[in-house]
Amino acid sequence: MNASLNTPSVTEEAQNKTMKHNCEHRAECMKIIQAILDDEATDAEKDHFRENMDKCIPCIEAYRLEKCIKDSLSLKIQKKPCPQSILDTIITKINS
Amino acid sequence: MSVAMSETLTNNGYTDDLRYEVFNREFMPHIDSMYNFAFRLTMDEDDANDLVQDTYLKAFRFISSFEQGTNAKAWLFRILKNSFINDYRKKSKEPSKVDYQEVETTYNSEEASDTTYTVDLRADAVQELIGDEVANALNALPVDFRTVIILCDIEGFTYEEMAKILDIPIGTVRSRLHRARNLLKEKLKSYASSMGYDS
C-alpha cells in the first residue's frame, strides 16, 4: 500500500488533478470519519462519506490516520491476564 | 421492561445457585478486560488488583440488580468505573487528575476552536510506533479522555453502551471521544517526533 502511495500511477496522477486538496468541511468530516470507523455513523453520514471520501485528499489522509490509530490501540497495546491470585481471592470471598 | 425490572427489584428471581451460576457464566469471562481497564485507570498494579476485587465482590453482592440477558460486560465496567471515581480517585493526590465537570466545561468551551484543529501526524509514522509507545501516549491523557478511548477503541463498546457506563448522553460520548482523539494525536506526534518516525 505504501509503495503505491509513494509512486502514484499515471491514472492516479490524472485523478489527483480532479481531487480536492483542501477540505472546507474539515471539522464535520473528521466527526464523520470517526463515526464511520466506530461503526456508529448515521445513514446521512454514510451517504456523505460515500459521496465525498474518494475526492478529498485531506479526508483520505485523515481516514488512514484515524484507522491506523484505532488499529494500533486495539492490536498493539499489550493486554495482561488478570493475576490468578485475584481470581482466587474473589472465589474464596464469594464462597465464604 | 418495567415489569421485568420490578420483578428483579422485588423478588429478584435469584436463588443462591443461580447467583453463582450467573456470576461464573456472565461475569468471570470478562475478568481480563476488567483487570486491564482497572490498570489503565489507576496506572498502579496494587490499585488495579483492589479495584477488580472490589468490583467483582460488589457485582456478586448486587447480582439481583443485574438483568439476565443484558450486557454483563457493560454492567461490570459501569461498577468498576463508579468504584474508581468514588473510592480511588478521592484517595489520589495526583495533581493531573481532573474533575469530570471541569473536563466537560473545558472541552465544551474549546469546541469552537477545536473544529479547525489538526495535528500534523502521518499514518505511516503511527505504524512505526510499537505497542509500549502507543500505550504511553494513551496513558499520558487525563483519565476522563483516556477512559473513552479505552472503552471505544480497546474494548469495542458502542456509543450507547459507553453512555450507560459513563452516565453521560451519547452526544457527549461523541464529543468527548473526538476531543480525546485529538489529544492522543498530539501525544503520538510527540512520540513519533522523538523517535524520528515522522521525518
Automatic annotation (TrEMBL), chain B:
GO biological process, one term: DNA-templated transcription initiation
Domain RNA polymerase sigma-70 region: 30-93
Domain of life where this protein originates: Bacteria
InterPro entries per record: RNA_pol_sigma-70-like, RNA_pol_sigma-70_dom, RNA_pol_sigma70_r2, RNA_pol_sigma70_r4_t2, RNA_pol_sigma_r2, RNA_pol_sigma_r3/r4-like, WH-like_DNA-bd_sf
Single GO MF descriptor: sigma factor activity
Keywords of this entry: Sigma factor, Transcription, Transcription regulation
Residue ranges occupied by any RNA polymerase sigma factor 70 region 4 type domain in the UniProt entry: 133-182
Tagged with keyword Ligase: no
Pfam families cross-referenced by the UniProt entry: Sigma70_r2 (PF04542), Sigma70_r4_2 (PF08281)
The family this protein is said to belong to: Belongs to the sigma-70 factor family. ECF subfamily.
Record's protein name: Sigma-70 family RNA polymerase sigma factor
